[in-house]
Amino acid sequence: MKLIKTLALTGGVLCLAKGLDDRLETTRYVIRSKKLPDAFDGYRISQISDYHADSVPGLVSEIESEAPDIIVSTGDLVHDDGSYAAGIRLCERLTKIAPVYAVNGNHDLWRSDYEEFEAELASTGVKMLHNERREIEKDGAKIGLAGIDDPFSLDGAKIVKTVKSAADKLPPYNGFDILLFHRANMLDMLKNRGFDLIISGHMHGGQFRLPVLGGVVSPKSSWSSEKSAFFPKYFAGHYSYKETNMIVSRGLGNPMLIPRIFNRPELVTITLKKEK
């Protein structure tokens, strides 16, 4: 009996240690498309999301080792209060690795000094996408990279209306097209819009991750939705609908008092491959 108790205690301690493991983890995806220009075959995109001006040891060196062609930030680079200096310092270092493109998130926009923050962010070389599309060129070929602002509201109806309006203003693109958008819980509104790849965050991996069941709880800003806050549909990983691929990052920081459980901070790298 004593041996059983000892084994049970040891197992519990090991399980807790694994569950609270907060070391950075890199997840790699390969997205294939016949629409991808030959020049972009092997093109690498590193995604950061939900950094919340936190401390993530090894993040910059890990991104550098991934050798991305571009880096994208899908919102909540900083938190809604406190200093945003950590987010600025991070971007100063990232722009020396590769061009950085970004969209804002709800916590970014909740800041009373958001305009000041974005001005400093732009001074680092980060290219913000505000309900617009830019083209990325390589060896004479081009792909589209669009970004939609966070809807910035706790009113569910207003959120839906704002996102629909922003998406409607993006003209169709004749080529491989990528969308950056913060709130993965709204992917059902965007998956029929003709994008080849949508890159999102916001869900924090469901905060707690359970085997088989996946992420457990949505961020508080999603609670205004009629959908349940528990066991969100899109919480982390690779999803697809027809020709649209959707990548959802688990995020990097943790602004909550509750720790991330079985949910290590995540850097995402996406490699684009030409499908013959």
What does the secondary structure layout of this molecule look like, with pairings?
Layout: H1 2-19, E1 25-33, E2 43-48, H2 59-66, E3 70-74, H3 85-94, E4 100-103, H4 106-109, H5 114-123, E5 127-128, E6 132-138, E7 141-147, H6 156-168, E8 177-183, E9 197-201, E10 209-210, E11 214-215, E12 237-241, E13 244-248, E14 266-274
Quantity of strands, as a count:
14
Gyration radius, rounded: 19 Å
Strand order of the largest sheet: 1-14-2-3-4-5
Coarse shape: globular
Please provide the ordered H/E string of secondary-structure elements: HEEHEHEHHEEEHEEEEEEE
Mean pLDDT: 89
Structural class: alpha/beta
Q: Please report the number of helical segments.
A: 6
Regarding quaternary structure, how should these chains be classified?
A: single chain
Largest sheet: 6 strands, mixed
Ranges with pLDDT <50 over ≥5 residues?
Answer: 3-18
* Fourth CATH level, the homologous superfamily: Metallo-dependent phosphatases
Architecture in CATH? 4-Layer Sandwich
